[in-house]
Amino acid sequence: MKYQSWLKQTWTIAKIEMRRAFFSKRAFWVYGLALFPSIIFFGNSLQLKFRRMNLSSHGLTAPALIDSIKPGESADSILQRLGKPASDFQWQSSTRVRDKSEANGTTSHKIEPASEARFVRLNVVMNNYVNDPFARIYEFEVYGNGSANLALKRPATSSPPCNADEGPEKALNGSVTGGKKDRWCSSGWQRFLQVDLGSVVPIKRVVVKHASAGGEKEELNTSMFNIQVSKDNKTFVTIVNGTGARLVDEITSHRRVGYFDGRREARLVFMDGRLDSIDVHSLLNFEEDRGIFAGVFQFFYLRLAIFFGCLGIFMNLFRGEMLDKTLHYWFLAPARREVLLAGKYSAGLIASTVIFSAGALLCFAVLLWTHNPVEVQSYWHNAGMTHAFWYVAASVLGCIGYGSVFLAAGLLMRNPIIPAAVILGWEGINGFLPEILQKASVLYYLQSLCPVPAPLDKNTPAILQLLLVPAEPASRAGAILGLLVVTAIVLWIARLAILRMQVSYGTET
What we know:
Blueprint lengths: L1 H22 L6 H28 L5 H5 L7 H8 L4 E12 L7 E21 L8 E3 L1 E5 L12 E3 L25 E3 L4 E19 L14 E7 L6 E7 L3 E14 L3 E8 L2 E9 L3 H39 L2 H6 L4 H34 L2 H40 L4 H12 L6 H4 L3 H8 L12 H6 L8 H24 L10
Antiparallel strand pairs: 1-10, 2-7, 2-8, 3-6, 4-7, 5-7, 8-9, 10-11, 11-12
Protein backbone atom coordinates (compact mmCIF):
# COMPACT_ATOMS: atom_id res chain seq x y z
CA MET A 1 0.00 0.00 0.00
CA LYS A 2 2.85 2.37 0.82
CA TYR A 3 4.42 1.93 -2.61
CA GLN A 4 1.05 2.36 -4.32
CA SER A 5 0.63 5.64 -2.48
CA TRP A 6 4.09 6.80 -3.57
CA LEU A 7 3.34 5.88 -7.18
CA LYS A 8 0.07 7.76 -7.04
CA GLN A 9 1.77 10.84 -5.59
CA THR A 10 4.52 10.57 -8.24
CA TRP A 11 1.94 10.51 -11.03
CA THR A 12 0.04 13.44 -9.49
CA ILE A 13 3.22 15.52 -9.32
CA ALA A 14 4.14 14.47 -12.86
CA LYS A 15 0.78 15.64 -14.23
CA ILE A 16 1.19 19.01 -12.55
CA GLU A 17 4.79 19.42 -13.73
CA MET A 18 4.06 18.33 -17.29
CA ARG A 19 2.39 21.67 -17.90
CA ARG A 20 5.64 23.39 -16.96
CA ALA A 21 7.66 20.93 -19.04
CA PHE A 22 5.47 21.29 -22.17
CA PHE A 23 4.54 24.95 -22.04
CA SER A 24 7.12 26.82 -19.98
CA LYS A 25 8.44 29.89 -21.76
CA ARG A 26 11.95 28.97 -20.67
CA ALA A 27 11.71 25.67 -22.57
CA PHE A 28 9.47 26.64 -25.48
CA TRP A 29 12.40 26.87 -27.92
CA VAL A 30 12.81 23.10 -27.49
CA TYR A 31 10.06 22.61 -30.08
CA GLY A 32 12.15 24.51 -32.61
CA LEU A 33 15.11 22.18 -32.02
CA ALA A 34 12.90 19.11 -32.45
CA LEU A 35 11.21 20.36 -35.63
CA PHE A 36 14.18 22.02 -37.32
CA PRO A 37 15.42 18.89 -39.23
CA SER A 38 11.87 18.15 -40.40
CA ILE A 39 11.49 21.67 -41.74
CA ILE A 40 14.78 21.41 -43.62
CA PHE A 41 13.90 17.99 -45.09
CA PHE A 42 10.40 19.18 -45.95
CA GLY A 43 11.71 22.26 -47.75
CA ASN A 44 14.19 20.13 -49.70
CA SER A 45 11.43 17.64 -50.55
CA LEU A 46 9.18 20.38 -51.89
CA GLN A 47 12.04 21.81 -53.93
CA LEU A 48 12.78 18.39 -55.46
CA LYS A 49 9.13 17.70 -56.22
CA PHE A 50 8.71 21.07 -57.94
CA ARG A 51 11.93 20.50 -59.88
CA ARG A 52 10.73 17.07 -60.97
CA MET A 53 7.41 18.54 -62.10
CA ASN A 54 9.18 21.35 -63.96
CA LEU A 55 11.58 19.00 -65.74
CA SER A 56 8.79 16.56 -66.63
CA SER A 57 6.65 19.34 -68.06
CA HIS A 58 9.23 19.88 -70.82
CA GLY A 59 9.07 16.23 -71.87
CA LEU A 60 11.05 13.11 -71.04
CA THR A 61 14.10 11.82 -72.89
CA ALA A 62 14.74 8.12 -73.41
CA PRO A 63 17.45 6.85 -71.00
CA ALA A 64 19.31 5.19 -73.89
CA LEU A 65 19.68 8.54 -75.66
CA ILE A 66 21.14 10.16 -72.54
CA ASP A 67 23.60 7.27 -72.19
CA SER A 68 24.69 7.76 -75.83
CA ILE A 69 26.17 11.22 -75.18
CA LYS A 70 29.95 11.36 -75.57
CA PRO A 71 32.42 14.10 -74.53
CA GLY A 72 33.53 16.36 -77.34
CA GLU A 73 30.31 16.13 -79.36
CA SER A 74 28.93 19.29 -80.84
CA ALA A 75 25.88 20.96 -79.35
CA ASP A 76 24.04 20.79 -82.67
CA SER A 77 24.47 17.01 -83.03
CA ILE A 78 23.34 16.31 -79.45
CA LEU A 79 20.30 18.57 -79.67
CA GLN A 80 19.36 17.07 -83.03
CA ARG A 81 19.55 13.53 -81.60
CA LEU A 82 17.97 14.15 -78.18
CA GLY A 83 15.50 16.86 -79.12
CA LYS A 84 14.46 19.95 -77.20
CA PRO A 85 16.10 20.06 -73.75
CA ALA A 86 14.24 20.51 -70.46
CA SER A 87 16.43 23.51 -69.67
CA ASP A 88 18.70 25.66 -71.83
CA PHE A 89 20.89 28.51 -70.59
CA GLN A 90 23.54 30.37 -72.60
CA TRP A 91 26.11 32.98 -71.63
CA GLN A 92 29.51 34.33 -72.58
CA SER A 93 32.66 34.96 -70.58
CA SER A 94 35.70 37.04 -71.49
CA THR A 95 39.30 36.69 -70.42
CA ARG A 96 42.02 39.22 -71.08
CA VAL A 97 45.01 37.59 -72.73
CA ARG A 98 48.15 38.87 -74.39
CA ASP A 99 47.87 39.86 -78.02
CA LYS A 100 49.44 36.96 -79.93
CA SER A 101 51.31 39.44 -82.14
CA GLU A 102 53.44 40.43 -79.15
CA ALA A 103 56.15 38.13 -77.87
CA ASN A 104 55.44 37.49 -74.21
CA GLY A 105 55.00 41.03 -72.96
CA THR A 106 57.64 42.55 -75.19
CA THR A 107 56.81 45.56 -77.38
CA SER A 108 59.09 46.74 -80.20
CA HIS A 109 58.79 50.25 -81.65
CA LYS A 110 60.42 51.30 -84.94
CA ILE A 111 61.46 54.93 -85.21
CA GLU A 112 61.03 56.15 -88.78
CA PRO A 113 62.77 58.32 -89.65
CA ALA A 114 65.56 57.75 -87.14
CA SER A 115 65.83 60.31 -84.35
CA GLU A 116 69.11 61.82 -83.19
CA ALA A 117 69.31 61.87 -79.38
CA ARG A 118 71.43 61.19 -76.31
CA PHE A 119 68.68 60.79 -73.69
CA VAL A 120 65.75 58.36 -74.08
CA ARG A 121 62.86 58.63 -71.65
CA LEU A 122 59.92 56.24 -71.08
CA ASN A 123 56.89 57.86 -69.41
CA VAL A 124 54.31 55.51 -67.90
CA VAL A 125 50.81 56.93 -68.33
CA MET A 126 48.81 53.94 -67.07
CA ASN A 127 50.53 51.28 -64.99
CA ASN A 128 48.62 48.15 -66.02
CA TYR A 129 45.20 46.65 -66.77
CA VAL A 130 44.21 46.19 -63.14
CA ASN A 131 44.09 48.52 -60.15
CA ASP A 132 47.70 47.96 -59.20
CA PRO A 133 49.70 51.08 -58.15
CA PHE A 134 53.08 49.93 -59.47
CA ALA A 135 54.70 50.40 -62.87
CA ARG A 136 57.01 47.53 -63.87
CA ILE A 137 59.63 47.44 -66.61
CA TYR A 138 61.99 44.47 -66.82
CA GLU A 139 64.15 45.75 -69.70
CA PHE A 140 64.47 48.98 -71.68
CA GLU A 141 66.52 48.58 -74.89
CA VAL A 142 67.57 51.17 -77.46
CA TYR A 143 68.98 50.29 -80.92
CA GLY A 144 70.67 52.42 -83.57
CA ASN A 145 72.41 51.44 -86.81
CA GLY A 146 73.75 48.13 -85.51
CA SER A 147 72.41 45.22 -83.46
CA ALA A 148 73.96 46.38 -80.18
CA ASN A 149 71.72 47.53 -77.34
CA LEU A 150 72.87 51.11 -76.80
CA ALA A 151 71.17 51.35 -73.40
CA LEU A 152 72.80 48.27 -71.90
CA LYS A 153 74.27 49.12 -68.49
CA ARG A 154 74.24 52.84 -69.22
CA PRO A 155 73.56 55.43 -66.46
CA ALA A 156 69.85 55.79 -65.73
CA THR A 157 67.48 57.88 -63.66
CA SER A 158 63.83 57.39 -62.78
CA SER A 159 60.97 58.39 -60.56
CA PRO A 160 61.32 57.04 -56.99
CA PRO A 161 61.61 53.23 -57.15
CA CYS A 162 59.46 50.87 -55.07
CA ASN A 163 62.60 49.98 -53.08
CA ALA A 164 66.37 50.09 -53.40
CA ASP A 165 66.54 46.67 -55.09
CA GLU A 166 64.29 47.76 -57.96
CA GLY A 167 66.04 50.88 -59.21
CA PRO A 168 66.35 52.03 -62.87
CA GLU A 169 69.65 50.18 -63.40
CA LYS A 170 67.73 46.86 -63.20
CA ALA A 171 65.93 47.71 -66.48
CA LEU A 172 69.26 48.18 -68.27
CA ASN A 173 71.17 45.08 -67.13
CA GLY A 174 70.21 42.87 -70.08
CA SER A 175 68.35 40.29 -67.96
CA VAL A 176 64.69 39.43 -67.23
CA THR A 177 65.18 36.09 -65.49
CA GLY A 178 66.02 37.26 -61.98
CA GLY A 179 62.46 37.59 -60.76
CA LYS A 180 61.04 40.70 -59.13
CA LYS A 181 64.51 41.88 -58.09
CA ASP A 182 65.45 42.05 -61.78
CA ARG A 183 63.03 44.86 -62.70
CA TRP A 184 62.50 48.58 -62.38
CA CYS A 185 59.45 49.37 -60.27
CA SER A 186 57.98 52.73 -59.37
CA SER A 187 54.80 54.02 -57.78
CA GLY A 188 55.55 57.73 -58.00
CA TRP A 189 53.09 60.31 -59.27
CA GLN A 190 54.96 60.88 -62.56
CA ARG A 191 56.49 57.52 -63.35
CA PHE A 192 59.41 57.66 -65.78
CA LEU A 193 62.55 55.76 -66.69
CA GLN A 194 65.40 57.57 -68.50
CA VAL A 195 68.72 56.38 -69.91
CA ASP A 196 71.80 58.41 -70.89
CA LEU A 197 73.40 56.92 -74.02
CA GLY A 198 76.60 59.02 -73.51
CA SER A 199 76.50 60.78 -76.87
CA VAL A 200 74.08 61.80 -79.57
CA VAL A 201 73.36 58.77 -81.78
CA PRO A 202 70.65 57.84 -84.29
CA ILE A 203 67.79 55.89 -82.65
CA LYS A 204 65.93 53.53 -84.96
CA ARG A 205 64.19 51.10 -82.58
CA VAL A 206 63.17 50.88 -78.92
CA VAL A 207 62.21 47.59 -77.18
CA VAL A 208 60.33 47.49 -73.88
CA LYS A 209 59.93 44.27 -71.86
CA HIS A 210 56.96 44.48 -69.50
CA ALA A 211 55.76 42.46 -66.46
CA SER A 212 54.88 39.19 -68.22
CA ALA A 213 58.33 39.12 -69.87
CA GLY A 214 59.67 38.66 -66.33
CA GLY A 215 57.15 35.95 -65.42
CA GLU A 216 54.41 38.08 -63.84
CA LYS A 217 50.73 38.15 -64.79
CA GLU A 218 49.86 39.58 -68.21
CA GLU A 219 47.34 41.95 -66.59
CA LEU A 220 50.33 43.76 -65.01
CA ASN A 221 51.85 44.73 -68.36
CA THR A 222 52.05 48.49 -68.96
CA SER A 223 48.75 49.54 -70.54
CA MET A 224 49.84 52.99 -71.82
CA PHE A 225 53.18 54.77 -72.14
CA ASN A 226 55.10 57.09 -74.43
CA ILE A 227 58.78 57.45 -75.34
CA GLN A 228 60.59 60.76 -75.68
CA VAL A 229 64.14 61.67 -76.73
CA SER A 230 66.42 64.66 -76.13
CA LYS A 231 69.87 65.83 -77.10
CA ASP A 232 70.39 68.12 -74.10
CA ASN A 233 68.18 66.56 -71.38
CA LYS A 234 66.03 69.67 -71.49
CA THR A 235 63.96 69.68 -74.64
CA PHE A 236 62.22 66.35 -75.31
CA VAL A 237 60.48 65.16 -78.45
CA THR A 238 57.90 62.34 -78.40
CA ILE A 239 58.78 59.53 -80.82
CA VAL A 240 56.36 56.86 -79.54
CA ASN A 241 52.97 58.09 -78.33
CA GLY A 242 50.00 56.51 -76.49
CA THR A 243 50.90 52.86 -76.84
CA GLY A 244 51.05 49.87 -74.49
CA ALA A 245 51.54 46.16 -74.13
CA ARG A 246 48.25 45.08 -75.64
CA LEU A 247 45.78 42.68 -74.11
CA VAL A 248 42.81 41.41 -76.05
CA ASP A 249 39.49 40.05 -74.78
CA GLU A 250 39.08 36.36 -75.57
CA ILE A 251 35.35 35.53 -75.68
CA THR A 252 34.15 32.03 -74.76
CA SER A 253 30.58 30.91 -75.45
CA HIS A 254 29.03 28.71 -72.79
CA ARG A 255 25.83 26.71 -72.92
CA ARG A 256 24.26 24.51 -70.27
CA VAL A 257 21.36 22.25 -71.25
CA GLY A 258 19.47 19.69 -69.22
CA TYR A 259 17.56 16.51 -70.07
CA PHE A 260 15.35 14.37 -67.83
CA ASP A 261 14.37 10.73 -68.29
CA GLY A 262 11.91 10.57 -65.40
CA ARG A 263 14.54 9.46 -62.91
CA ARG A 264 17.87 10.96 -63.89
CA GLU A 265 18.83 14.50 -64.79
CA ALA A 266 21.62 15.06 -67.31
CA ARG A 267 23.44 18.40 -67.22
CA LEU A 268 25.55 19.12 -70.29
CA VAL A 269 27.99 22.03 -70.42
CA PHE A 270 29.27 23.19 -73.81
CA MET A 271 32.18 25.53 -74.49
CA ASP A 272 32.34 27.12 -77.93
CA GLY A 273 29.81 24.61 -79.22
CA ARG A 274 31.58 21.46 -77.93
CA LEU A 275 30.59 19.29 -74.98
CA ASP A 276 33.00 20.08 -72.17
CA SER A 277 31.43 18.15 -69.27
CA ILE A 278 28.45 15.92 -68.56
CA ASP A 279 26.83 15.17 -65.20
CA VAL A 280 24.17 12.46 -65.10
CA HIS A 281 22.69 11.89 -61.65
CA SER A 282 19.50 10.61 -60.09
CA LEU A 283 17.25 13.43 -59.04
CA LEU A 284 16.31 11.37 -55.98
CA ASN A 285 18.79 8.97 -54.44
CA PHE A 286 17.17 7.00 -51.62
CA GLU A 287 20.40 5.45 -50.36
CA GLU A 288 22.17 8.80 -50.31
CA ASP A 289 19.27 10.52 -48.53
CA ARG A 290 19.16 7.79 -45.88
CA GLY A 291 22.86 8.43 -45.24
CA ILE A 292 22.18 12.17 -44.99
CA PHE A 293 19.38 11.48 -42.50
CA ALA A 294 21.72 9.30 -40.42
CA GLY A 295 24.29 12.11 -40.37
CA VAL A 296 21.70 14.76 -39.42
CA PHE A 297 20.30 12.50 -36.68
CA GLN A 298 23.67 11.77 -35.11
CA PHE A 299 25.45 15.10 -35.59
CA PHE A 300 22.51 17.44 -34.97
CA TYR A 301 19.65 15.59 -33.29
CA LEU A 302 21.62 13.62 -30.71
CA ARG A 303 24.54 16.02 -30.17
CA LEU A 304 22.61 19.30 -30.14
CA ALA A 305 18.81 19.08 -30.29
CA ILE A 306 18.24 16.46 -27.58
CA PHE A 307 21.18 17.72 -25.53
CA PHE A 308 20.00 21.33 -25.36
CA GLY A 309 16.34 20.28 -25.31
CA CYS A 310 16.90 18.25 -22.15
CA LEU A 311 18.94 21.13 -20.75
CA GLY A 312 15.95 23.44 -21.25
CA ILE A 313 13.33 21.04 -19.89
CA PHE A 314 15.03 19.25 -16.99
CA MET A 315 17.18 22.07 -15.70
CA ASN A 316 14.04 24.18 -15.47
CA LEU A 317 12.17 21.70 -13.25
CA PHE A 318 14.02 22.67 -10.07
CA ARG A 319 16.14 25.63 -11.12
CA GLY A 320 13.13 27.36 -12.66
CA GLU A 321 11.19 27.10 -9.41
CA MET A 322 14.17 28.46 -7.49
CA LEU A 323 14.23 31.47 -9.80
CA ASP A 324 10.45 31.90 -9.42
CA LYS A 325 10.78 31.38 -5.63
CA THR A 326 8.09 28.68 -5.57
CA LEU A 327 10.12 25.57 -4.73
CA HIS A 328 9.34 25.81 -1.01
CA TYR A 329 5.66 25.05 -1.71
CA TRP A 330 6.67 21.57 -2.89
CA PHE A 331 8.85 21.06 0.18
CA LEU A 332 5.91 21.97 2.41
CA ALA A 333 3.57 19.49 0.64
CA PRO A 334 2.91 16.12 2.36
CA ALA A 335 5.12 14.14 -0.04
CA ARG A 336 8.56 12.61 0.30
CA ARG A 337 11.32 14.42 -1.50
CA GLU A 338 12.23 11.26 -3.38
CA VAL A 339 8.66 11.21 -4.68
CA LEU A 340 8.96 14.86 -5.70
CA LEU A 341 12.20 14.04 -7.54
CA ALA A 342 10.58 11.07 -9.30
CA GLY A 343 7.51 13.09 -10.25
CA LYS A 344 9.48 15.96 -11.72
CA TYR A 345 11.82 13.59 -13.57
CA SER A 346 8.83 11.66 -14.96
CA ALA A 347 7.23 14.88 -16.17
CA GLY A 348 10.41 15.99 -17.92
CA LEU A 349 10.96 12.54 -19.37
CA ILE A 350 7.42 12.31 -20.77
CA ALA A 351 7.65 15.79 -22.29
CA SER A 352 11.10 15.34 -23.85
CA THR A 353 10.30 11.84 -25.09
CA VAL A 354 7.09 12.96 -26.77
CA ILE A 355 8.70 16.04 -28.33
CA PHE A 356 11.88 14.42 -29.65
CA SER A 357 10.43 11.02 -30.57
CA ALA A 358 7.71 12.76 -32.54
CA GLY A 359 10.32 15.05 -34.12
CA ALA A 360 12.49 12.08 -35.19
CA LEU A 361 9.49 10.20 -36.61
CA LEU A 362 8.24 13.28 -38.44
CA CYS A 363 11.65 13.86 -40.03
CA PHE A 364 11.84 10.16 -41.02
CA ALA A 365 8.34 10.36 -42.54
CA VAL A 366 9.25 13.49 -44.53
CA LEU A 367 12.32 11.66 -45.85
CA LEU A 368 10.18 8.75 -47.06
CA TRP A 369 7.50 11.04 -48.50
CA THR A 370 9.99 12.47 -50.99
CA HIS A 371 10.80 9.19 -52.73
CA ASN A 372 9.13 6.71 -55.05
CA PRO A 373 6.30 4.86 -53.22
CA VAL A 374 7.38 1.48 -54.59
CA GLU A 375 10.97 2.00 -53.38
CA VAL A 376 9.72 3.24 -50.00
CA GLN A 377 7.34 0.31 -49.56
CA SER A 378 10.10 -2.19 -50.31
CA TYR A 379 12.41 -0.45 -47.80
CA TRP A 380 9.67 -0.26 -45.13
CA HIS A 381 8.88 -3.99 -45.33
CA ASN A 382 12.56 -4.94 -45.19
CA ALA A 383 14.45 -2.65 -42.83
CA GLY A 384 12.49 0.59 -42.62
CA MET A 385 10.31 -0.29 -39.64
CA THR A 386 13.35 -1.52 -37.70
CA HIS A 387 15.30 1.62 -38.54
CA ALA A 388 12.43 3.85 -37.42
CA PHE A 389 12.17 1.95 -34.13
CA TRP A 390 15.86 2.36 -33.31
CA TYR A 391 15.88 6.04 -34.22
CA VAL A 392 13.01 6.54 -31.76
CA ALA A 393 14.74 4.32 -29.18
CA ALA A 394 17.92 6.41 -29.44
CA SER A 395 15.85 9.57 -28.95
CA VAL A 396 14.10 8.16 -25.88
CA LEU A 397 17.31 6.90 -24.29
CA GLY A 398 18.97 10.23 -25.04
CA CYS A 399 16.20 11.95 -23.08
CA ILE A 400 16.59 9.43 -20.24
CA GLY A 401 20.36 9.90 -20.00
CA TYR A 402 20.71 13.63 -20.58
CA GLY A 403 17.54 14.31 -18.60
CA SER A 404 18.91 12.71 -15.44
CA VAL A 405 22.20 14.61 -15.81
CA PHE A 406 20.56 18.01 -16.18
CA LEU A 407 18.00 17.33 -13.45
CA ALA A 408 20.85 16.56 -11.05
CA ALA A 409 22.80 19.59 -12.29
CA GLY A 410 19.80 21.79 -11.52
CA LEU A 411 19.94 20.59 -7.92
CA LEU A 412 23.70 20.68 -7.46
CA MET A 413 24.83 23.70 -9.47
CA ARG A 414 23.94 27.35 -9.03
CA ASN A 415 24.97 28.13 -12.64
CA PRO A 416 23.65 25.56 -15.19
CA ILE A 417 25.98 26.84 -17.91
CA ILE A 418 28.99 25.23 -16.24
CA PRO A 419 27.85 21.57 -16.34
CA ALA A 420 26.28 22.09 -19.77
CA ALA A 421 29.55 23.45 -21.18
CA VAL A 422 31.62 20.65 -19.62
CA ILE A 423 29.34 17.89 -20.92
CA LEU A 424 28.98 19.50 -24.35
CA GLY A 425 32.76 19.84 -24.62
CA TRP A 426 33.30 16.21 -23.67
CA GLU A 427 30.68 14.99 -26.15
CA GLY A 428 32.04 17.32 -28.84
CA ILE A 429 35.57 15.89 -28.72
CA ASN A 430 34.31 12.32 -28.38
CA GLY A 431 35.30 11.35 -31.93
CA PHE A 432 38.91 12.49 -31.37
CA LEU A 433 39.41 10.49 -28.16
CA PRO A 434 40.99 7.03 -27.81
CA GLU A 435 38.53 4.16 -27.96
CA ILE A 436 38.42 3.57 -24.21
CA LEU A 437 37.57 7.24 -23.53
CA GLN A 438 34.93 7.32 -26.25
CA LYS A 439 33.04 4.70 -24.26
CA ALA A 440 32.82 7.04 -21.27
CA SER A 441 30.25 9.15 -23.08
CA VAL A 442 26.46 9.13 -23.37
CA LEU A 443 26.82 9.88 -27.07
CA TYR A 444 28.85 6.71 -27.66
CA TYR A 445 25.99 4.51 -26.45
CA LEU A 446 23.36 6.52 -28.30
CA GLN A 447 25.29 6.20 -31.56
CA SER A 448 25.57 2.46 -30.97
CA LEU A 449 21.78 2.30 -31.19
CA CYS A 450 21.58 4.09 -34.53
CA PRO A 451 20.74 1.66 -37.36
CA VAL A 452 22.80 3.46 -40.03
CA PRO A 453 26.32 4.83 -39.38
CA ALA A 454 26.83 8.51 -40.05
CA PRO A 455 28.73 9.09 -43.32
CA LEU A 456 32.17 10.70 -43.19
CA ASP A 457 32.76 13.39 -45.79
CA LYS A 458 35.12 12.07 -48.47
CA ASN A 459 36.76 15.50 -48.65
CA THR A 460 37.81 15.31 -45.01
CA PRO A 461 41.65 15.36 -44.81
CA ALA A 462 43.20 11.91 -44.35
CA ILE A 463 44.80 12.81 -41.02
CA LEU A 464 41.42 13.99 -39.69
CA GLN A 465 39.75 10.79 -40.93
CA LEU A 466 42.28 8.80 -38.90
CA LEU A 467 41.50 10.87 -35.81
CA LEU A 468 37.76 10.46 -36.29
CA VAL A 469 37.78 6.66 -36.43
CA PRO A 470 34.85 5.68 -34.15
CA ALA A 471 35.26 3.14 -31.42
CA GLU A 472 33.76 -0.30 -31.96
CA PRO A 473 30.05 0.23 -31.23
CA ALA A 474 28.54 -1.43 -28.19
CA SER A 475 25.87 -4.07 -28.60
CA ARG A 476 22.39 -2.63 -28.42
CA ALA A 477 21.67 -4.53 -25.22
CA GLY A 478 24.93 -3.28 -23.73
CA ALA A 479 24.21 0.31 -24.84
CA ILE A 480 20.73 0.26 -23.28
CA LEU A 481 21.99 -1.32 -20.05
CA GLY A 482 24.92 1.12 -19.84
CA LEU A 483 22.69 4.17 -20.23
CA LEU A 484 20.21 2.89 -17.66
CA VAL A 485 22.99 2.21 -15.15
CA VAL A 486 24.42 5.71 -15.67
CA THR A 487 20.94 7.19 -15.28
CA ALA A 488 20.33 5.27 -12.05
CA ILE A 489 23.64 6.47 -10.57
CA VAL A 490 22.94 10.10 -11.52
CA LEU A 491 19.40 9.95 -10.08
CA TRP A 492 20.76 8.45 -6.86
CA ILE A 493 23.14 11.43 -6.60
CA ALA A 494 20.19 13.75 -7.28
CA ARG A 495 18.23 12.00 -4.48
CA LEU A 496 21.03 12.69 -2.00
CA ALA A 497 21.12 16.32 -3.12
CA ILE A 498 17.39 16.89 -2.68
CA LEU A 499 17.30 15.18 0.72
CA ARG A 500 19.83 17.61 2.15
CA MET A 501 18.56 20.67 0.30
CA GLN A 502 17.25 23.61 2.30
CA VAL A 503 15.71 26.47 0.39
CA SER A 504 17.11 29.97 0.82
CA TYR A 505 16.49 31.81 -2.42
CA GLY A 506 19.41 34.10 -1.88
CA THR A 507 21.84 31.16 -1.39
CA GLU A 508 20.31 27.79 -2.28
CA THR A 509 21.92 24.94 -0.36
